[in-house]
Specification:
This protein is α/β, with parallel strands linked by helices. It is built from nine helices and seven strands, in the order H-H-E-E-H-E-H-E-H-E-H-H-E-H-H-E. It has one domain: Rossmann fold, CATH 3.40.50.150. The chain binds S-adenosylmethionine. GO terms for molecular function: methyltransferase activity.
């Protein structure tokens, strides 16, 4: 499974930032929410775990100096290769589990802020990884996990929605793992309204397999999924809501 996921992100890396979901408006909106939630102070030691191409670190960078670079940590070197060169960012090729278990080569013994966005579903044991990340936090440190809920409102074909649901942890379970790791934890939800041309969306599903779950279907299954999407959604413009669970934990001082 790890190899399949690695292969998926290897194929996706070059186009990742140009994905339809990453419209400038969405990226700016999400970046602002992340910066507000993590509330960085100068000198904070920050890691974006599963940070991919670093797209959602941008609003954090004004608070970061090259003396204490932000760590963009990801097991896919292909994703990390897309991170723009910036002296305030250091890439580290490692998985969240390695970070959580203290096996990743990080320049900091503890962290003041950790971001995990749309990545936690890739780890086999969510509670263990959340617990390990929580242990790395300095007093007052924040852990922000952003994840889609298992039940999506996306206009995808049913088998993809079902498989997505099987593979995604409940937001409440992520929060429970944080609480039992000793963090003061709260859950938020942020919604983004999406409008996209139906055929463009179907191309992203069928040809680009832009979500990792789509990579688990054969080309024939995706072709029949595309037909199902057309018959369920005859409208030319698809409108739906992207719902993000924000789970924020803080280590008591
Ligand atoms: C959907 S992308 C999200 C990237 C970035 N956080 C963002 O929101 O743009 C998921 C990322 O998780 C990474 N990933 C896959 N397995 C992982 C693991 N076990 N630990 C950490 N990251 C992982 C992938 O390489 C990919 O970059």
């Amino acid at each position: 499974m790890r190899d399949t996921i690695a292969e998926h992100y290897e194929n996706l890396a070059r186009d990742y930032d140009g994905n339809w979901a990453h419209s400038a408006e969405y990226v700016e909106w999400m970046n602002r929410l992340i910066a507000e939630a993590l509330d960085l102070r100068p000198g904070d030691r920050v890691a974006d775990v599963g940070g991919g191409t670093g797209l959602f670190e941008r609003a954090l960078l004004p608070r970061i100096s090259p003396d204490t670079p932000l760590l963009c940590v990801d097991p896919s070197q292909h994703m990390l290769d897309q991170v723009p060169a910036d002296p305030r960012v250091r890439t580290v090729c490692a998985g969240a589990e390695e970070v959580a278990e203290g096996r990743a080569d990080l320049p900091y013994g503890e962290l003041d802020a950790v971001l995990v966005k749309e990545t936690i579903h890739h780890v086999p044991d969510v509670a263990a990884t959340v617990g390990g990340l929580a242990r790395l936090l300095a007093p007052g440190g924040r852990l922000l996990i952003i994840s889609l809920p298992p039940k999506l409102d996306y206009p995808l074909f049913q088998a993809a929605l079902d498989r997505f649901a099987e593979r995604h942890p409940e937001i409440a379970d992520i929060a429970a793992a944080m609480r039992s790791s000793g963090l003061d934890t709260r859950i938020g939800q942020h919604d983004f309204a999406v409008e996209v041309d139906r055929e463009h969306y179907i191309r992203l599903v069928q040809r680009h397999k832009w979500m990792s779950v789509l990579f688990t279907f054969t080309d024939e299954e995706l072709a029949s999924g595309a037909e199902e999407m057309r018959s369920r959604h005859p409208e030319q413009t698809l409108r739906f809501t992207d719902r993000f669970g924000f789970v924020l934990g803080r280590r008591p001082e």
